[in-house]
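Example 3.2
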Amino acid sequence: MSCINVALLGFGTVGKGVYQSIDSHQTRLEKVLGKRVKVIAVLVENLEKHKNFKEEGVLLTDRFEDILALPDLQVVVDAIVGCEPGNTYLKKVIKKGCHVVTANKEMFAQHGEELIVLAKENHVTIGFEATVGGGIPVIQTIKQLLQVNRVKKIEAILNGTSNFILTSMRKDGHSFDVTLELAQQNGYAESDPSNDIEGYDAFYKGLVLSQLIYGETPENKTTIRRGITNITSDFIQRVNELGLRFRHIVTLYKASGQIYCKSEPALVSSEHPFYQVEGVQNGVSIYTDLVGNIQLNGPGAGMFPTASAILEDIIQINREVSAEPSFIEFQEDGEDTSNWVLLSDKTDIKLPYETKVLARSDEKTIILATDNIEKILTENPLASCFALKGAFQHTPEKVII
């Protein structure tokens, strides 16, 4: 039986997950592809750390040139973190004529457009399912299942660390710092968690989706990136009394010819599909013009969910070798958020006379309906403001209108 020869760039959590999954699912892969999938080389940064890895027929090397010199290499899996050297490596293997599958969201967010063009010029394909949503098949859903529907907007919880912290703070009542430490102890957050809690990780994933849907990424002036570090346990408990929950959400849409990408904390009501997306789970809502809203939920990170996405891409590459990429239609829709929650620690919130107040629990926690939020924030510089997503249903005995 013929083989699909694969090289792994990187042998950390993701790389090992791919290696183990290919071994454990070889029978299934053979049935689907009609070929064996064989890892023939692994690139590592430090050979000493992997001295116990001894597999017959597998080249273990710390020299990328050794990978590039392999004569029968067909697919390269990128499991490296950071823009470089991953971007440089992938350009070289694409020019060599290898197909590429990447899990590197930061690199692909910055260089995905040029890599896609280069892959097309060299008649190879590039799979990037693992860059967004981990094991959730977001990319393939958009590429393969929405041939007639036009994408109007995407909302997504794309960082399991942030979602775990916000969920745990609400359930346990602990501070942000205590909950972050718990996330690190459980392996959900790195020792330096900045990429997750400051919103960078989710933002990069939003840029990947923008490239997929619109063929380009937004300009800096139409992007927002905010993390969750300023959300206190007091804020969480106050909005919880109003039946709302904090989520860190990426919102992607196009309006007036411009692409908007927001990666920021927001509040969801019980009517919103993200209300029940708890813990380290991810969720993606794809709003379309025909079928309406498609909701995908599942594990967004980890060894085997990410490996699953990579294996699905390898299968898809085999099917798409001679196929032209399909064009994804989008529909300019704009964001429909006009409801906001204002939270203040120290002073009462001042509102213009014409402001429509939907509900309030006190003078420091107010839900409004307004298109003029900038003016209100100017008058309340110490207040924090969060978009409210989903229909608001208040409980009369808890809320004074």
